[in-house]
Specification:
The chain contains 8 helices and 14 strands. It has 259 residues and is an alpha/beta fold. A hairpin with a 2-residue loop joins β8 and β9.
């Protein structure tokens, strides 16, 4: 299985518009962070985690020409507002793209994108919309996505839940604040963990900071952890130098092969 980081930034991305801080003006390409997205490649199939606003550019940069399934973590704009870029895949294959979303979010997702999900809406001749096969999941219930067996896991994210998963030796947490007992048990001893981490220091009400992410990784005894969802308060080199063994900063374009 191959894990490809397509975007490692928060909702603002990096550089932040109009910001002249050292990170936003850095020449280090690892300090340029699109909104969060990863791709899992397995046996020739590609599964996306989220569809951020930059999805088209991310897929072009990674030379990804097919998408076999999509797993949505939650419905915040920076995680779903690139959904229209799925059009080319359903158009080319002449079949809908399977999209997995927590059952509690199905109704809201359909309401926010009626041109995709409302069959009563007729498109103008010559125009297209993504064709999506929406599939609801429940936390803890195993699902097969793009040839991978996933166990979806719920993580508190302010007033909502964000859903990650365990897939074989990979664990993924996006926009979490803590690891509930059920998720901790499911992630125990994971080989590779991906976890969000905004910055050093100041606690945030809905996200891990770096210290909390490190502690969370240690609590599940992850062998290798990659921090993502990083803000412009984190310079890649400085962050990397301050991390303990077994914890690394992810960056856009990073590829990790997982047994």
């Amino acid at each position: 299985m191959r894990l490809r980081f397509l975007g490692t930034g928060t909702s603002f991305g990096v550089p932040v518009i109009g910001c002249a801080c050292d990170v936003c003006t850095s020449s280090d390409p690892r300090n340029r962070r699109a909104r969060h997205c990863v791709a899992l490649e397995n046996d020739g199939k590609v599964m996306l985690v989220d569809t951020p606003p930059e999805l088209r550019v991310q897929l072009l940069d990674a030379d990804i020409g097919r998408v076999d399934a999509v797993f949505l973590t939650h419905l915040h704009a920076d995680h779903i507002h690139g959904v229209d870029d799925l059009r080319i895949f359903s158009l080319r294959s002449n079949s809908p793209v399977p999209m997995y979303v927590a059952r509690e979010y199905v109704e809201e997702l359909e309401a926010r994108f009626p041109y995709i999900f409302d069959s009563s809406i007729r498109l103008n001749p010559g125009t297209t919309a993504p064709r999506v096969d929406l599939r609801a999941f429940d936390a803890g219930a195993r699902i097969e996505v793009g040839g991978l067996e996933l166990r979806p896991l719920a993580f508190p994210h302010g007033h909502v839940k964000s859903y990650g998963f365990r897939a074989g030796s990979l664990g993924l947490i996006v926009d979490g604040k803590k690891i509930p007992a059920e998720a901790r048990e499911a992630l125990e001893g994971v080989e590779v963990l991906v976890i969000n981490a905004l910055w050093w220091g100041d606690p945030h009400p809905t996200h891990f900071n770096v210290e909390e992410a490190i502690e969370a990784a240690r609590s599940v005894r992850a062998k290798q952890t990659y921090l993502t969802h990083l803000t412009h308060r984190l310079d890649y080199e400085t962050l990397s130098a301050g991390l303990p063994e077994g914890i690394a900063a992810a960056y856009d374009g990073l590829v990790v092969d997982i047994e």
